[in-house]
């Protein structure tokens, strides 16, 4: 039986040091599985077993995306053994070009026309992560989004505590997306 550390992700937050370790375990020759272990300050709080590399990759990606959506401190990969790590399946995906800013502006204008009836209107509300990626080309965060057609800006704000005051966390021009 062999066990090797394949990947390590780390993030630091007020609550402590978060870490995701991916171990490749081979109980017998040709049979492998991946142990995805999540810790906070050295204490394990979740362990998942992935029978295939795709399952392990999916679990790690879920934890990383959740951390990005939840807090300001995203995970960073600090170790990756290319020979042993679960594949990213980048070959399966078609190469994507960077988003065209004119297409994004047109998408946002159509979104505003659909929601407010005018291109220069102002819409305020929440969008799911998949909707944000489709509309903006990236995930901005959880909270209230304000899309302003007159100023061509997007503001992201979150509630300070118990909805008393809103704190603006991002104020982006459409061209900056």
Mean pLDDT across all residues, rounded? 80
> Using DSSP, what is the number of strands?
9
H/E element string?
EEEEHEHEHEEE
Helix content: 10-25%
Tell me what portion of residues adopts beta-strand conformation.
35-45%
Short summary of the structure?
This protein is an alpha+beta fold. It has three helices and nine strands.
Characteristics of this structure?
4-stranded antiparallel beta sheet, alpha+beta, 9 strands, elongated, 177 residues
Give an overview of the whole structure.
It is a single chain. This protein has 3 helices and 9 strands, in the order E-E-E-E-H-E-H-E-H-E-E-E. With 177 residues, the chain is an alpha+beta fold. It has 2 domains: 79 residues; 76 residues, no CATH class. Strand 3 and strand 4 form a beta hairpin. About 3% of the residues have low confidence.
SSE layout and pairing:
Layout: E1 2-13, E2 16-28, E3 31-40, E4 43-50, H1 53-70, E5 76-80, H2 101-116, E6 122-125, H3 129-136, E7 144-148, E8 153-159, E9 166-173
Antiparallel strand pairs: 1-2, 1-5, 2-3, 3-4, 6-7, 7-8, 8-9
